[in-house]
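Title: [Solved] PucR C-terminal helix-turn-helix domain-containing protein 3D structure

Original question kept below for reference.
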Amino acid sequence: MRTLGAFLGHGGSWNACAERLHAHVNTARYRIRRVDELTGRDLSTMADRVDLFLALQAH
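Solution (posted by the thread starter after getting help):
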């Protein structure tokens, strides 16, 4: 959830997300790919980004 929040909070920027998490950019990519797999969503689409952003806000 922390990785997803960082990714969405930085407008989908891999580099900014990785910096925020103090992780390598490939680690951020891997984690977001896992979110895609686990949720059945595609974070490359704006609609799915909005849905997951709202879900995080509600959490």
